[in-house]
Amino acid sequence: MIYDNDQDKVQINICLPRHDRDMLRKIAGKRMMDDPSKVESAASVGSEIIRKYLDEQERRASKERKEG
């Protein structure tokens, strides 16, 4: 089965320290203040951070495979 990474989304639950959750909330709030037409949440900010991290890991692994 082939999955489209952008369309096939699943929910996961994670536990973070309260401080980290609050930081994600602050980032989301700042984004909404900067652009009130955007709807942001701590979850959407956290998801974005995780996706960027995983994309970077994938790029590095791909680069290492090409070099090795």
Q: Can you tell me about this structure?
A:
The structure is a single chain. With about 70 residues, the chain is mostly helical. The protein has one domain (about 20-65). Helix content is about 65%, strand content about 0%. The chain is built from two helices and no strands. The protein has helices spanning about 20-35, 40-65. Helix 1 packs across helix 2 (about 40-65). The protein is elongated. It starts with 17 loop residues before the first helix and ends with a helix. The mean pLDDT is about 90.
Count up the domains. 1
Structural class: mainly alpha
What is the averaged pLDDT score?
91
Cα radius of gyration in angstroms: 16 Å
Amino-to-carboxy terminus distance? 29 Å
Question: What's the quick description here?
Answer:
The protein is mainly α and 68 residues long.
Give the SSE map.
Layout: H1 18-34, H2 42-67
Helix pairs in contact: 1-2
What distinguishing features does this structure have?
2 helices, 68 residues, single chain, mainly alpha
